Amino acid sequence: MLIYEKIVRSTCRNIGFVSADVGLDADNCKVLVGIEQQSPNIAQGVHGHFTKKLEEIGAGDQGHMLGYTTDETPEFSQKEFTAKKPQSLVNLCIGVLGIPLEDIIEDLEEIAIGLPGDIKLAVAAIVRRRKLLSDDVLTKKVAE
Known about the structure:
This protein folds into two domains: 4-56, GMP Synthetase, Chain A, domain 3 (2-Layer Sandwich); 79-143, no CATH class. The chain has six helices and two strands. The chain has helices at residues 4-14, 40-46, 79-97, 105-108, 119-130, 135-143, and strands at residues 18-19, 24-25. The chain is extended, with a radius of gyration of 20 Å.
């Protein structure tokens, strides 16, 4: 079993969080570990390799979190994510894919988009995953 608290403290210490003066004291901060057993429904999809064909097996419950909850916007997300991402993403989806954002939103939920520059990479990942364009055409579109 991993020693989560030890790993967290060591990582914080290695990147310079060694005292309250720098914002965090790795040796005295509180480390919370909230790892729970995987949901039986997800486990069945992931570990069904004993009873299912390979193409029927799911990918698990991996996820990414980006940012934090705040009262800066009605959506409780940071202003920079709410203000910049949607319109740029809508335009890029229509321009590169020729399809509206709503048609790929399910794919986008699986991809963390941090900065506006990353939007092209996210859309390119979706295009490649869905095999909507050849790699040659995709490379040219992303370079534009």
